[in-house]
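[Automated response] Your request has been received and processed.

Submitted sequence:
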Amino acid sequence: MLRCVHQLAAAANLALAISILALTLSTLRAGRRPTHIRSWLFFAAASVTLVARSGLEAVGSVRWDDASSLLEVVTIAMLAVGFVFLYGADREQLRRIENDAERDPITGLYNLRAFRSMARHRIARTGERQGRCALAIFDLDDFKAVNDTRGHQVGDQVLRLVSLGIGTNMRADDVAARYGGDEFVVLLGNCDGPEAERVLGRMSDSIQSLTAGAGNVSISAGIAVYPDCAPDLDGLIRSADGVLLQVKRDGKKAVRLALAR
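Generated structure:
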């Protein structure tokens, strides 16, 4: 009776080991690398120890009990580590998906939806501290001419260089997004009007320098300071956008601060 139990356990172990190996080999033969390679390696190793243990179980000899128990512990450990790696890889993949959903695919900056969520939170926190922050909206002067004369691939490259110019001059408390088309928006944390003008001036200089080989793009920008110009995000956007329109009407290529309420 005991020998029959050992043989059944050995058969179960062998079946499980064959299943794991078959799944791994099927994936590899299909020309695909397993998605979570480290977890697959540990599962494959566990299948080997299962095969070895099934052989000992089939023998059913008492003198192999210690070795069989050791293989059982090793198998469980291998499976546990494999599942830990699998769980970690899935979490990392989920983080990448979430990050991709928040980012503009061309520039790598935040998209407007993600920016609005973060900006509202930061503005509220600034209000609680009775501090100041500034919101700037700017667009690229005559960007349409770049697309029309040099093509959209060059235009996309210019947008990526612009995002680089923004990122180079951002501070720890700042967050930037592509507002749409050739427009960008930046929330400058812990920042008053004069400091915001200086930061946007540095961004403008960097953008012109970086895009020198692709049209020497300049920017026009409008800045609104919280709480001087508006009490919330939507009000800041309207205020900064209104100043930006004035800059465009007055000849472009300038950074201007909105008046306080």
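Summary generated for your ticket: The mean pLDDT is 80. The longest strand covers residues 133-140.
If you did not submit this request, please reply to this message.
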